[in-house]
From TrEMBL:
Family, as annotated: Belongs to the RecA family. RAD51 subfamily.
SUPFAM superfamilies noted in UniProt: P-loop containing nucleoside triphosphate hydrolases
Boundaries of every RecA family profile domain copy: 75-255
Assembly information from the UniProt record: Part of the BCDX2 complex consisting of RAD51B, RAD51C, RAD51D and XRCC2; the complex has a ring-like structure arranged into a flat disc around a central channel. The BCDX2 subcomplex RAD51B:RAD51C interacts with RAD51. Interacts with SWSAP1; involved in homologous recombination repair. Interacts with HELQ.
Summary of the function given for this chain in its UniProt record: Involved in the homologous recombination repair (HRR) pathway of double-stranded DNA breaks arising during DNA replication or induced by DNA-damaging agents. May promote the assembly of presynaptic RAD51 nucleoprotein filaments. Binds single-stranded DNA and double-stranded DNA and has DNA-dependent ATPase activity. Part of the RAD51 paralog protein complex BCDX2 which acts in the BRCA1-BRCA2-dependent HR pathway. Upon DNA damage, BCDX2 acts downstream of BRCA2 recruitment and upstream of RAD51 recruitment.
Gene Ontology molecular functions: ATP binding; ATP-dependent DNA damage sensor activity; double-stranded DNA binding; four-way junction DNA binding; single-stranded DNA binding
The protein, known as: DNA repair protein RAD51 homolog 2
Lineage: Eukaryota, Metazoa, Chordata, Craniata, Vertebrata
Length: 400
């Protein structure tokens, strides 16, 4: 909330203009100054400045709410992905008011997810949509209007059989191509007005990593700090916008290879390349601080050239789980409504709302990658993080 613009806090236009001349535009900018500095910059008396600081503090302070109030609004807390198994695991879909990151290797389907979500956001509410506009910030020139229309017409053929509906949908997706870090930052600074004018119910930044990684060589001294500051600023602005407008913000990220022990890798590491190497592992780019900025992290990864997986790697409400998908004409298609155990790749029956944790014993169809081959394997039907942590601990102790 500290990123809130001063002109949205009730401060007079005249004072806002005076402060803007000194690059004081947000609550944080103003509240970082001493009263004497504000007096000089805003041309106000000491008494006026104290009142100004108090009203701005109040305007950006998070308001208190009870769990009961949040519970009552739960139907309005998520944006459905139209993938029922993923929605069930995420307790309704992508959370509004927070940041969701989709990260994965090139060509795995991150931009396809973004385009599909754009179509969904424009749909009427009775179809699970948000009946809203979309702000789509494209930093890789990967957005395709043809593909957007193809996804819409293939996924909802009955609804988009009328040309007017297709035109209306496409007209609600507002595309900004921003190809440098400064352009992205400037766009985010102006996004508040754009959200209001386009009635946006969804903001997409595809991708947050590409411009940052192009411009910042973090092996050079000082660059890592600059990059962290830039990412911190972007995350703060996006979080503020997500909260202020109660909308989902979706970001895409790339992957990177780290040199180090396999045992050091966290839940965000990828299968495949990492398992074949002794001295490296593949993980989400942009570092640890960034990973704490996103509230939900979905990892997309290849199983083979056709088959891919979505991993719920970080979520305050969902278990750590894996879903198989393919990219089709209609966008993302889940291959089954089942989820996989992250430690052994075993498929669980569809997780339904009433699924209770139950013990599940089965014969493994293939040798367990992390344990000595055994004829049977027992674990919980409900996938838990414990299961994955246990598996990683075993993997690290084996690699030592
Ligand atoms: N019309 C289509 N039908 C089926 N698959 C498609 C279609 N268009 C793109 N794809 C698939 O989408 C993948 C590229 O996805 P994309 O979202 O651009 O990747 P990235 O993760 O790099 O953003 C490719 O595997 C491509 O085959
Ligand atoms: Mg892409």
């Amino acid at each position: 909330m500290a990123s809130k613009k001063l002109r949205r806090t009730g401060v007079s236009l005249e004072v806002c203009e005076r402060l803007k001349r000194h690059q004081i535009e947000t609550c944080q900018d103003l509240l970082s100054l001493t009263p004497l500095e504000v007096m000089r910059l805003a041309g106000q008396s000491y008494r006026q400045v104290l009142m100004l600081l108090q009203s701005v503090s109040q305007a950006c302070a998070p308001s208190m709410t009870t769990a009961l109030e949040v519970w009552k609004q739960r139907a309005d807390l998520c944006f459905s992905t139209s993938l029922p198994a993923l929605d069930r695991l995420l307790q309704g879909g992508l959370p509004r008011g927070t940041l969701t990151e989709v990260t994965g290797p090139s060509g795995c389907g991150k931009s396809q997810v973004c385009m599909m979500l754009s179509v969904l956001a424009t749909l009427p509410k009775y179809m699970g949509g948000l009946d809203s506009g979309v702000i789509y910030i494209d930093t890789e020139s990967a957005f395709s209007a043809e593909r957007l229309v193809e996804i819409a017409q293939s996924r909802f053929p009955d609804y988009f059989c009328e040309k007017e509906r297709v035109l209306e949908m496409a007209g609600r997706v507002h595309l900004f191509r921003e190809l440098t870090c400064q352009d992205v930052l400037d766009r985010l600074e102006r996004l508040e007005e754009d959200i209001i004018s386009s009635k946006a119910g969804l903001v997409i930044l595809d991708s947050v990593a590409s411009v940052v990684r192009k411009e910042y060589d973090t092996t050079l001294p000082g660059n890592l700090t600059h990059r962290s500051n830039l990412l911190g600023q972007e995350a703060a602005t996006l979080k503020y916008l997500a909260q202020a407008f109660h909308i989902p913000v979706v970001l895409t990220n790339q992957i990177t290879t780290h040199v180090g022990n396999r045992g050091e890798r966290g839940a965000a590491s990828f299968r495949g390349a990492s398992d074949e190497r002794d001295s490296g592992y593949v993980t989400a780019a942009l570092g640890n601080t960034w990973s704490h900025s996103v509230n939900t992290r979905l990892i997309v990864q290849y199983v083979d050239t056709h088959q891919r997986q979505i991993v719920i790697a970080k979520s305050p409400v969902a278990p750590f789980a894996v879903l198989n998908y393919t990219v089709q004409k209609e966008g993302i298609r889940l291959e089954d409504s089942a989820a996989l155990c992250c430690s052994c790749g075993l498929t669980f029956p569809a997780l339904t709302a009433d699924t209770q944790p139950r013990s599940h014993t089965t014969r493994l169809p293939w040798p367990h990658p992390l344990e000595d081959p055994q004829p049977t394997h027992t674990h919980e039907m409900m996938i838990t993080r414990k299961c994955c942590i246990k598996a990683q601990t075993r993997a690290s102790s084996r690699s030592e």
